[in-house]
Amino acid sequence: MKKLFALLLALTLIVGASGALASGTTYITLGTGGTTGTYYALGAEIAAMWMQNIEGLDVTVQPTDASKDNIVYVNDGQIDVATVQNDSAYYAYEGQLYDGSDEVFDGFYAIGSLYPEAVQLMVAADSDITDVSQLAGLNVGVGAAGSGTIINAEQVLEAAGLTLESISPQYLGFSETATAFQDLQIEAGFITSGIPNASIIEAANARPVRILTLTDAQWDTLTTNYAFYAPATIPGGTYAGQDEDVTVPAITALLIVSKDADEELVYQLTKTLFECTDQIGHAKAAELNVAAAVEGVPVPFHPGAARYYAECGYEVEAGA
């Protein structure tokens, strides 16, 4: 009788599990960035659009400290899909994600590039600071610990002959940078994001800003050492106090996914992302397109994403 009861219990569990699978619900977590940044705002709308168009999909949007942390979380299986900077993805594969460590983080593939991200270095509009080299010895927001902004800050400083040790670095997220800038606790702040950035808007409304550009020599140094940078223009009037167009370095926001993700699922995520763009209200949706998605990608594409791009006439390097 005990054996029969055990058998019946086992069958009940199996049937229950089969019923859950038959429901077709697939749960994924989308890693974004700070809640005032573009990653989070756009990510929330992408998640809603995916759930509206892919039957049985349930997406949890997870705010994080962005690129570095997202790579580690995807690599470790804590989240499934994430937005990261293309340079951070490159360094992860090269074993250069963290200083002093040669650990390789390659447990992810690319879905595609989303939009360019500008390295925006703000100072007060009435400040005497006109060149990056003048930041020596000053309090400067360089991004949250674990963020890709720190990497960009170090590289821009390097192009101007400085290091993090040359300044007084403040490890602040976007909203913290805005607050510190308004409260006169920092003289400058780096924010790498799409244009415009909500935190810079907030800061500039209280304390008008000017976005620093690079000299020709600094630009040559930066792009010689780091070929993934490209110029981006911030139109005059984007932020209070910034009256003229300014050219700054930019990388791209890259959507990545776990190597273990199901090929059909990733195919549907990719296809839906680019074929239902009109359902995304965020301004960055205007920059989403297949041609741009396959550019600036320094790591292999997930086979599911590569399949969609092939249907659109684009051959890309797919992971095994």
Explain how this protein is built:
With 320 residues, the protein is α/β, with parallel strands linked by helices. The protein contains 11 helices and 10 strands. The protein has helices at residues 2-22, 38-53, 67-75, 86-94, 148-159, 174-182, 198-206, 216-225, 263-275, 290-293, 303-311, and strands at residues 26-31, 57-62, 81-85, 108-124, 139-141, 168-170, 188-193, 209-211, 230-234, 246-258. Strands 1, 2, 3, 4, 5, 6, 7, 8, 9 and 10 form a 10-stranded mixed β-sheet that branches. β1 (26-31), α2 and β2 (57-62) form a beta-alpha-beta unit. α5 (148-159) crosses α8 (216-225). It is globular. The model is unreliable at 1-22 (pLDDT under 50). Residues 1-22 form the signal peptide. It comes from Candidatus Pullichristensenella stercorigallinarum. This is TAXI family TRAP transporter solute-binding subunit.
Give the SSE map:
Blueprint: H1 2-22, E1 26-31, H2 38-53, E2 57-62, H3 67-75, E3 81-85, H4 86-94, E4 108-124, E5 139-141, H5 148-159, E6 168-170, H6 174-182, E7 188-193, H7 198-206, E8 209-211, H8 216-225, E9 230-234, E10 246-258, H9 263-275, H10 290-293, H11 303-311
Parallel strand pairs: 1-2, 1-3, 5-6, 5-7
Antiparallel strand pairs: 3-10, 4-7, 4-8, 4-10, 9-10
Helix pairs in contact: 5-8, 6-7, 9-11
